[in-house]
Amino acid sequence: MKLKFTIPSMDFSAAGKASTEAKRFLSRLGLDPGLVKRIAIAMYEGEMNIAIHGGGGGAELEISPEKIELLFKDNGPGIADLELAMTEGYSTASEEVRSMGFGAGMGMPNMKRNADSMDVDSKPGAGTRVVLVFNLAKAEPS
Amino acid sequence: MMGPQVEVHTGAQATNFFHSVYLDKELCIGCTTCVRRCPTQAIRVRNGKAHIAEERCIDCGECIRTCPKGAKKWISDPLAVMGGYDIKIALPAPSLYGQFGADTSPDLVFMALRDIGFDEVFDVAWGAARLGMATKEYLKEAGPRPAISSACPVVVRLVQLRFPSLIPHLVHLRPPFEIAAKELRQRLILKLAEAGDDPVAGQRMTSAEQLHIGVFFISPCTSKVTAIRNPLGYEKTEVDAVFSFQDIYSPLKKAIQKRKATALKSYSELDTEPMFKRIEGLGSGFGWARSDGELEALNVPGAVSVDGIDNLIALLEEIDNGKLGDIPYIEALACPGGCVGGPMVVANPHVARTAIKAVSVNQRTKQGSGILDETTGAGALQPGCEELEGLGWDAELPPKPVMVLDRDLEKALAMAQKLEELTAGLPGLDCGACGAPDCRALAEDIVKGEAELDDCIVRLRKKTADL
Question: Cβ A23–B167 below 8 Å, yes or no?
Answer without folding.
Answer: no
